[in-house]
Design a protein that fits this description.
Two copies of one chain form a homodimer. By secondary structure, chain A is an alpha+beta fold. The first copy, chain A, has three domains: 10-109, Alpha-Beta Complex (Nucleoside Triphosphate Pyrophosphohydrolase), CATH 3.90.79; 114-197, no CATH class; 226-293, Arc Repressor Mutant, subunit A. Helix content of chain A is 33%, strand content 20%. Chain A is built from nine helices and nine strands. In chain A, the strands form two sheets. In chain A, strands 1, 2, 3, 4, 5 and 6 form a six-stranded mixed β-sheet that branches. A three-stranded antiparallel β-sheet of chain A has the order 7-9-8. Chains A and B meet through strand 1, strand 3, strand 4, helix 4 and helix 8 of A and strand 1, strand 3, strand 4, helix 4 and helix 8 of B. Chain A binds a DNA duplex through helix 8.
DNA sequence: TCAAAAGTGTTATCCTTACACCCATGT
DNA sequence: ACATGGGTGTAAGGATAACACTTTTGA
């Protein structure tokens, strides 16, 4: 019986969250004046979805993506109209070759999510305490009493309120919370005077972008993907700046270095780099062999017997 | 220019890897005599993909899925024929309500992946040392010299050879390695006399299933998803048996108990359970509140400053 | 009384965190 | 000389892994 239904057809779209880090700023590749992520339809001539994606991105940036992984597949219900349904298959791409084709298509992540940059001196910390926390407080109070505590807990966990720590990887949860609280313009009941700052994108592309940031921030903690964003050789300081840019958080210098060196993730090239001020730094390169040696991260379960 | 292309259309299929654990055996819901995973086309009347999936699964099992998460989206190139391309959006579903409709549609995971069960007394350990290891050895030797070491490393990491430990979460990597080594029937150049035991499924469903196992084994380590497979109340022994069934590995009893209790994942119900032989065990229930409290797992990066 | 499973306690080890300090360069 | 960033050492605390042992039931 299952095979007898008429098979309906949908449009399949490939969407790319391509990111890089330039001078301590995480950037994402956009199209059409920063309103879109790069995207294009899956074509019959594409051998695979990744190949199709590579084609679209190459046409816009002129270079191959070093690293690509699938993010998530969305079926936007708003677009299930007479024209038919559209399914968006999104990918995360990482690259370090921003300079090849200078372009203003590379936009700072934090233009779209200002609250996500929690480094000191950035917009994030002030934005949370002065704008987001009070408005979420109002949203909590506006709930029926039975639901109030659940809302408060959710706000506290997402934004590190009430003495909780800030968790960089909760990007998507924060975006969805702001959406539900009608504090961002995508929300149906949003009112202009209560919005939280941050540029929006066409359709659900800001949501897809937030999925990409969340994945990258989570993955960086247990898989050596940062190196896809680095040049061939780099200093440990540059590496740390890159990780901090992605995490939106400052890291402890000495421990960061030990973490990287003790795990044998890098090897010295023998050269040094004359930095602005201070002692010249040793240059390192990523030991690509670790990708083969360590398929595995580390278990949380007690092993044998 | 991007908007001007004629949008080609594809078939969108929803595929479910629904698993449960019954009497220490992990099982997966199949259709049509165990050859398929349950699947069905995405319809216009489905409000969302998850809703569509729930519909298909409910029709076959009669109960709702407690937990659903998206797995991966595949575009099988072999099926991009005259009939057009098909995109399969796969989901992982967890349930504990197997008993509602008795059915032989629940098949043991390890019928499809016998090598994945590494518990003592199971087929796995012998299969690896007596069949897989020698045949992979031949595959290594058959490579051109320059490629030989890479193949050996890969085989060693995947199957815990050469003194390495077995990593339960490498399910997909092992499947793909066996595929490339032509040791499973899906492989184009496979020959019947060199195959590794294990039932196959239609199309790429065995591959999708292996993606599901991999995700579940990985996720169980940092997120309390096991409880979706447990009844309302259970003993710590039953919980351990369930985790062991999924991991395909025995766990250390005392440390497992401590891990569960010290993290406040469970609370005692006050009742006890008279087991077969031995002292009666306390019953516990999952503290669902932890899902709200702990959105976060734990960072691998040194935090402040 | 013994087998079987539940449950408790203790110790060695490793990893994370934090702190203190020295080194090499430009100005 | 001193500011700046690079680089090293070490000690405290917590989590994990491994060990030995007691308790409570059914047969």
């Amino acid at each position: 019986m299952m095979g007898r239904v008429t098979r309906e057809r949908v449009g399949a779209e490939l969407v790319a969250v391509v990111t890089a880090v330039v001078a301590g700023r995480p950037v994402v590749l956009t199209a059409e004046g920063g309103q879109h992520l790069p995207f294009g339809p899956l074509r019959t001539e594409h051998h695979s979805m990744q190949a199709g994606l590579q084609t679209w991105v190459e046409q816009q940036t002129g270079h191959r993506l070093g690293y690509v992984e699938q993010l998530y597949t969305f079926a936007d219900p708003d677009r299930a109209s007479a024209a038919g349904r559209v399914v968006s298959i999104s990918y995360l791409g990482l690259t370090n070759a921003v300079g090849d084709r200078p372009s203003d298509a590379w936009r700072d992540w934090y233009a779209f999510f200002p609250w996500e940059d929690q480094r000191v001196g950035s917009a994030g910390p002030g934005l949370v305490t002065e704008v987001i926390e009070p408005r979420l407080g109002a949203w909590v109070e506006a709930a029926p009493p039975a639901e109030r505590e659940a809302r408060r807990l959710r706000a506290d966990v997402c934004f590190g309120l009430g003495g909780r720590g800030w968790s960089p990887e909760l990007v998507l949860q924060r975006y969805e919370l702001l959406y539900e609280a009608a504090l961002i313009p995508e929300a149906p009941s949003a009112t202009p005077d209560r919005l939280v700052p941050g540029e929006r994108m066409a359709g659900d592309h800001r949501r897809i972008l937030s999925t990409g940031l969340a994945r990258l921030r989570a993955k960086i903690q247990y898989h050596p993907v940062v190196f896809e964003l680095m040049p061939e050789s780099f200093t440990l300081g540059q590496l740390q700046v890159t990780v901090e840019a992605l995490a939106g958080q400052a890291l402890h210098k000495q421990n960061f270095r030990r973490l990287v060196t003790q795990q044998d993730l890098v090897e010295p090239t023998g050269e040094t780099h004359a930095e602005t001020g201070g002692r010249p730094a040793r240059m390192y390169r990523f030991r690509r062999a670790v990708l083969d040696e360590r398929q595995v991260a580390g278990t949380k379960l007690p092993r044998t017997r």
